[in-house]
Write a structure and sequence with these properties.
The chain has a single domain, classed as Up-down Bundle (Amino acid/polyamine transporter I), CATH 1.20.1740. The longest helix has about 35 residues. It starts with 9 loop residues before the first helix and ends in a 15-residue tail after the last helix. Helix 8 packs antiparallel against helix 13. With about 500 residues, the chain is mostly helical. The chain has a two-stranded antiparallel sheet. It contains 19 helices and six strands.
């Protein structure tokens, strides 16, 4: 059993980079920043703002975004340190393996897969809403049984709807999967085009919408209070809604935290960065700062244009311009929402397979399947297909409300682990080369852990239970398969390793 806490040395990680079964190094700092912005700006602006302002925080959602942004900055600095030290695929999973041991690495890797898969399903749901609003403008309507998820989420309970499945959400997942299998260069170019379009529209929303702000709409600024704190479903401080869930500024920050998770996906592409020790920290921090400023500005415009109680839950930005008497802008924003959310989905689904790839290279999941890199496209194509099937099921059947909360708690848990890993690594190996050093250690990691835990406690209890169930399922898989097949564990036990992934070289 002691082998389950064995650590993978940083030297071993870097030596593993020398084999041929690796991803292409084609991403520079601008492309990585674009990938980060592509993952961050999307459903957070085009979908989450309306629901969170309307029912959780009101105009104080501006402060909620600022709080979430500061929380992310703490975690981002910790991510940047590790990404510069260990420029390999796997993100927080890899960092946990070098500092906390195999079992903790498995837990965080399994959690990251949940984060990216459920996040992808959430984004696909948001894409479906905007896509159908564009179709409506063109006089096209899908049959009711194909318009939305089979289940609705009401005060913690799932209720069957008249729809069989959310067909547009499934179709966009399939389309993005095909792009991802084709190659990282093609994916990055497609993402860059989508990012340019949606940032242009976000700036349009800010500068045009500013002329339609009515200061009276900001009052009351915090109608649900400034807190909204609970612990495992037990109300601690602040107001609650009819279902007993916390509301207020802090609760709003916990709900919209989903909008920020894209920055950590930059670290999953360390193996594809041209100069990862420099480019990954730039990509992480630059994308986070840019998007935090844009988020706060957009929320200020939306809640100034329309009273918070009248904001649309599904397409807040487009609907705000409609209520302001600008229907022509509504169509432009809805179309840009489709493009913008597509790029978020692309980066989300780009990241999950790379975590599986790292886990498979360590033998914790079947290496011959999940670590297989396509001989021509040099992408983890089997992992991509496997995750896309899971995402299709979630996106087609479950509503955005339930998916949004589950994504947040998984992300916050990952951030806590990364911040803790920086503290541990500074203690275990203080002299190792750190091309980027997180400043003010231990203050920044401690603040990161504390702020993430604060937001986690502000989420509804149902999300804690779902996270626990997912982690229990992961532990069952680890102890029934991963522990026995771990390459590191086999070496420590003196066993022969015969199931390493096959190395493919183009042309052979």
């Amino acid at each position: 059993m002691k082998h389950i806490f064995a650590k993978k040395s940083l030297k071993r990680l870097l030596e593993g980079m020398k084999d041929d079964n690796r991803l292409k190094r084609v991403l520079g700092p601008v492309t990585l920043t674009s990938l980060g912005v592509g993952a961050i700006i999307g459903a957070g602006i085009f979908v989450a703002t309306g629901a969170a302002a309307k029912a959780v925080a009101g105009p104080a959602l501006m402060v909620s975004y600022a709080l979430a942004g500061v929380t992310c900055i703490f975690a981002a600095l910790c991510y940047a340190e590790f990404a510069s030290m260990a420029p390999v695929a796997g993100s927080a999973y890899t960092y946990a393996y070098t500092t906390m041991g195999e079992l903790f690495a498995w837990i965080i890797g399994w959690d990251l897969v949940l984060e990216y898969a459920v996040g992808s399903a959430t984004v696909a749901n948001g894409w479906s809403g905007y896509f159908q609003s564009v179709l409506a403008k063109l006089g096209i309507s899908l049959p009711e049984y194909l318009q939305k998820a089979h289940f609705a989420y009401d005060n913690g309970h799932f209720i069957a709807t008249n729809s069989w499945v959310n067909l547009p959400a499934i179709l966009v997942v399939i389309g993005v999967t095909l792009i991802l299998i084709k190659g990282i260069s093609e994916s990055a170019r497609f993402n860059a085009a989508m990012v340019f379009l949606k940032v242009a529209v976000v700036l349009f929303v800010i500068f045009v919408g500013a002329f339609y702000i009515h200061p009276a709409n900001y009052l009351p600024f915090a109608p649900f209070g400034w807190t909204g704190i609970s612990f495992f479903g037990r109300h601690m401080y602040g107001q609650v809604n009819a279902g007993g869930d916390p509301v207020g500024m802090i609760a709003g920050s916990a709900i919209i935290f989903f909008a920020y998770i894209g920055f950590d996906s930059v670290s999953t592409h360390a193996e594809e960065a041209i100069n990862p020790k420099r480019d990954i920290p730039i990509g992480i921090i630059a994308s986070l700062v840019i998007c935090t400023v844009l988020y706060i500005a957009v929320v200020a415009v939306l809640t100034g244009m329309v009273p918070f109680a009248q904001l649309s839950k599904d397409a807040a930005v487009a609907d705000a311009f409609k209520q302001a008497g600008l229907p022509w802008a509504e169509f432009i924003i809805a179309a840009a929402g489709v493009a913008g959310i597509t790029s978020v989905l692309l980066v989300m689904m780009l990241s999950g397979p790379r975590v599986f790839l790292a886990m498979a290279r360590d033998g914790l999941i079947p290496a011959r399947f999940f670590a297989d890199v396509h001989p021509k496209f040099r992408t983890p194509w089997k992992s991509t297909i496997a995750i896309s099937v899971f995402v299709c099921v979630l996106a087609g059947l479950l509503p955005i409300d339930a998916l949004l909360h589950l994504t947040n708690i998984g992300t916050l848990f990952a951030f806590v682990m990364v911040c803790a890993a920086v503290l541990i690594m500074r203690r275990l190996d203080p002299h190792i080369e750190r091309p980027f050093r997180c400043p003010w250690v231990p203050l920044v990691p401690v603040l990161g852990i504390g702020s993430c835990l604060l937001l986690m406690t502000s989420l509804p209890a149902a999300n804690w239970w779902r996270l626990i169930v997912w982690l229990i399922l992961g532990l069952v898989i680890y102890f029934s398969y991963g522990r026995k097949h771990s390459f590191l564990g086999k070496e420590l036990r003196g066993e022969k390793i015969t199931d390493r992934p096959v190395i493919h070289v183009e042309g052979h």
